[in-house]
Write a structure and sequence with these properties.
single chain, 157 residues, alpha+beta, three-stranded antiparallel beta sheet, 4 helices, 12 strands, globular
């Protein structure tokens, strides 16, 4: 029988797009690098993100009810690494420019594109929760290569 480490190693071979999911619940703001964004439905427009139950974003996302997704550009590997490190909240936003989206979600100012989502449903998924978000606003940034993660590294595509 294979364990989670085997699955993690195998999945690192499969490139995934990189984004930062953000939430703001009454001034408590958090952002986390996620590689699990998936389009689920076009009618209604739904996306899913898998968030570890031990990650600070997990409960804050529940409390906020609205979350932002900033799809990263190929030249934003440092931003992805910053939000993947688990930086304490006080230092998390240092040097990071943000903006408020059309629907009120917290977004990274410089990104390839943005989604603003209202939590539509959540499903238990072992040590993670699959949060399904209804897309309430979206916007494209300037055209650029996207950022993907594969085999322990970020790459422009």
């Amino acid at each position: 029988m294979n364990d989670g480490g085997d699955l993690r190693s195998l999945m690192r071979l499969f490139p995934s797009g990189v984004c930062v999911v953000t939430a703001d619940a009454g001034g408590d703001r958090i952002g986390v690098t996620i590689g699990s964004l998936v389009s689920l439905s076009l009618d209604p427009p739904l996306v899913g993100v898998s968030v570890g139950k031990d990650v600070a974003l997990h409960e804050l996302l529940r409390a906020a009810g609205l979350f932002g997704v900033s799809l990263l550009r190929g030249d934003q590997a440092a931003v992805a690494a910053h939000f993947a490190r688990g930086t304490p909240p006080l230092g998390l936003w240092s040097g990071i420019e943000t903006r408020t989206g059309k629907a009120g979600a917290l977004l990274l100012a410089e990104a390839l594109a943005w989604l603003e989502c209202r939590v539509w449903a959540e499903y238990d998924a072992g040590d993670h929760t699959l949060f399904v978000g209804e897309v309430v606003a979206l916007e494209e940034g300037e055209p650029a290569p996207g950022l993907v993660y594969r085999e322990h590294g970020y790459h422009a595509l």
